[in-house]
Amino acid sequence: MSGKTFDLMPENSLSDCSSYKEDTRFKKAVSRILAGEVLFVIILNFWIFDIILPLIGVILMMLGFRALKNESRAFKICFFISAAQTALLIFYVIINASVLRAAFESSSAFTVLKVISAVLKFIILCCQTAGIYDLQEKAGIEKHAGGAAAFVIWYVLLVFFAVYPVINSVFLIVFIILLGFVIRSMYKLYRELADKNFNLTVSQSRISDAVVVSFAAAAVVVGVACCYLFLNGYKADWQTWQPPSNGGDAELEKISTHLAGLGFPENVLGDLQAQDLRDCAGALRVVVKQDDYPGNKGRKVTEKTETGYRETVIYDTENLHITSVAVELSRDNRQWRIFHHFSWTSNPGFCGTDAVIVCTAYSFTGSWMTPYNPRTMESYDILGQMLYDKAGTSYAAPYHFLGDTASMLGRGNITAEFSMPDSGENHRGYISYTAMQNTIGSSFADSIEYVHQTSRFCYPVVTAAQSRQNTEVFFTPDVFYKTSGTFQFWPYDDAITNRAA
Question: Where are the domains of the chain?
Fold first, then answer.
């Protein structure tokens, strides 16, 4: 063995080692890109996969294109777009942990961002095709990227069928199989490049991939934690409160005294707004129903019986008191003002959002309707507010939302959405509306449902009102507690005053 040959061996060995490292980094980058693209374009509407998997996918794409960004300007564009997509998805993951989620998803900004995101995905796939052409030219291979072009076409079809859905189970299976063929073709393109021994430069940054991933994970964790701590409920404009009848207004004091004389519960009367009192001027009769409900899911007790075991639910306290009041306003016009009042006799722990839903008499049946005030010739307002006491002072605030919501019959229910402070005592509130008999001889019936949030930890965040029809919340089933009651009476029975069935 000559000395010259001996001297060259270490150099050749180092060159082979460097080439092996570059080849390994290239294959690793390609694997990340392909895996990320699959996770990014496939949206699974199951559990939280539609949120988490795209984020993981776009991070993998960002890391893969980050390693190849010096090989082609097209790959550099892919890197910057995937980095921007990562930031947008991190923001979306965070906002899903706050009550702002519903407002954000119903806004025009969310629609615009979805369109921008779809366009950016398309640009990434197009630039990826251009980047493969650049690498093939560098390696001396004839330009061909049918798999990459097929991926672009596949994605365009995906967007088209998302806008104009004609998808059934067979179509979906075929579409996924096609994606498998596309990814396989893409892998062959990249593998062909990896097998070529050409001067490949895989970028190495001072900031490692592990640091980038850790930073993204930390941003998600900190953002979600802040949402759970500070954006878990609605803000309210709390002001000190005293009953309007105590403010020196002789008219309101007279109406209040008259209602109390008819049997209107004084604890409810003291929470009514001035407009509610004025609407009840000249009241003829009052019908009252009061019930106590447990404000929790209770505890399960298992008992041994002769045939086996029996599980029952025991409620140690019934701390939610609901009072329903009907005030007859006009016998000729058959109009009634309805009040549903709730009060917590002990603090159940407020950690998010609550909701009260009233299924009005006119949402139950066509025998009742929304009337007009004969004095103003305008429809009666839906009124209500929430209150609580602290250190001997009462505070009141408007609900975050109070208004009509759709019912199964197409007519309006009334929904109040709100958040109570966890401090203080005697947390309470009410909703009022007016109903008029549309069919003579019909009985009155409506219902009230209270939804209370018992834990702040649910993802994605759903409000108490949304929980009634939402099935996409993935958490322990104890997050929301729901209770309901009905209010029924026969308007033509003169003996019903101060009581109801």
Answer: 3-230, 239-298+314-496
